[in-house]
Amino acid sequence: MSIPVHCPLRVKFILPALIEATSPQWRPIKYSLFPPLGLATLAAYLGPDDEAVIVDEHVEKLSLNDAPDLVIIQVYITNAYRAYRIADHYRTQGAFVCLGGLHVTSLPDEAAPHADAIFLGPGEQTFPAFLADFRAGHPGKIYRSASGRTLDRVPPIRRDLIQRNRYLVPNSIVVTRGCPQHCDFCYKDAFFENGRGFYTQRVDDALREIERLPGRHLYFLDDHLLGDRRFAESLFEGMRGMKRVFQGAATVDSILRGNLIERAAEAGMRSIFVGFETLTPENLKSSNKRQNLGRDYKAVTDRLHSLGIMVNGSFVFGMDNDGDDVFRRTVDWAIEHGITTATFHIQTPYPGTRLYARMVEQGRILNCNWDLYDTRHVVYRPARLTAEALKTGYDWAYREFYRWGSIAQASLQHGTVKHQLKHFFYAAGWKKFEPLWDAMIRARQLARMTPLLEGVLSRISRRSSTAEVAPEAMFPIIQS
């Protein structure tokens, strides 16, 4: 199928649900956080006369009773089967279907039978090349992102296609790509490894994108906001005086090195996601997370607390040097050092990673059902734990860390009453009131809400632009 270059296209961008909304595992808070910026970025390459729509199945129902010319589907590992079913449907209806994303790049041979074309790696190069070929009548089957990647001249994200009111954190933004580190378990490393593994926007472009966003609060979704010192310094300098309040992610070593974290705080950083991952040095070595080796984790939390920056710590269970004591040691450490919110993960060997290759070679993969590769299930044979003990310990860690007593104890690690209260209500707002938020989100998504509830949600959204810690700020990046 091809469309003459002068004819407008009808393009449908789809983000299939990571998990079905009818499943007991469905968590509206997790799946309604951020809009699909990747798809909105691709949409920016369309012509002014093209018709485009973005459908995020996490926040709205997907209708299949239409006839787009092009269907572009973003595929993660846990939405892969759903994505393939949607792709197969549209192909039978005569649409040209493209698949891209992390899972397609990891397993292109699995994805290819369900698509007319697949994109491997970031789409800023592949999608424009595909569009040109498609309009010319000779689209290829595989488009691979090459070396020499850049974000120069990337058009502004099509935020007009994002339904802001459907998301808890609509003011999300990405100003870099990839990560300068290469941990063995990282799902994104293979996605960015061909060519430059980490690259940034021009600072002026990033600042212009920030200025487009209403209100005060931002959430940087970059894997490592401090990954390029010169870029980050210029970004934070440009943000000074903007009166923005923002969250981001960074590594242990970047927080300890120099004064970049102080510059971030001066620019408005109030919360940060930090990959501590493990308290065991042997695990760091075996997973190639060398940027954490020899680093003083306590110095990290002390420095962040002194700047008034809340800490969302990431921890992984089930690495080869983890024994039965790993759960208690990790939770006790997190509470003792005032971690505001914690995300715990069961180690998951994603296809395309060095961890997965090693597990396959050792015959330790127990399950290849991608629906279970969500860091909540055990899909491999642990070295020093049974699968049952790993799952039980993981569940216990969440319960123990988010007990009222644990939240209170962790909040007392902060020096001032202001930050103690901030910690307490931030952590409580995330976990203890999750059922309430879930009920409100479900009601909105299922269109069964009353006008009163709609008004409450609208007022919360408006107030988030002026509050020091907005309701949306109570929802850190949660992967499990």
Query: How many β-strands, per DSSP?
Result: 14
Helix content: 25-40%
Q: What is the residue-mean pLDDT, rounded to a whole number?
A: 86
Q: Main sheet?
A: 6 strands, parallel
Count of DSSP H/I helices:
20
The structure class reads alpha/beta
Give start-end ranges of low-pLDDT stretches. 447-480
Strand content: 5-15%
Specify the CATH class of the largest domain.
Answer: Alpha Beta
* Terminal residue distance: 41 Å
The CATH architecture category of the largest domain equals: Alpha-Beta Barrel
What's the number of domains?
Answer: 2
How are the strands of the largest sheet arranged? 2-1-3-4-5-6
| CATH topology annotation of the largest domain | TIM Barrel
Characterize the overall form: globular
CATH superfamily of the largest domain: Aldolase class I
Backbone CA Rg: 22 Å
Strand and helix layout:
Elements lengths: L9 E6 L12 H4 L5 H7 L7 E6 L13 E5 L5 H13 L3 E5 L1 H5 L1 H4 L5 E4 L2 H14 L5 E3 L27 E2 L2 E3 L10 H4 L5 E3 L2 H10 L4 E4 L8 H11 L5 E6 L1 H5 L3 H8 L1 E9 L3 H6 L10 H10 L3 E8 L8 H11 L4 E6 L7 H8 L25 H15 L2 H8 L5 H15 L2 H12 L5 H13 L17
Parallel strand pairs: 1-2, 1-3, 3-4, 4-5, 5-6, 7-10, 10-11, 11-12, 12-13, 13-14
Antiparallel strand pairs: 8-9
Helix pairs in contact: 8-9, 9-11, 14-16, 17-18
Protein traits:
480 residues, alpha/beta, Rossmann fold, TIM Barrel, 2 domains, 20 helices, 15% strand, globular, disordered C terminus
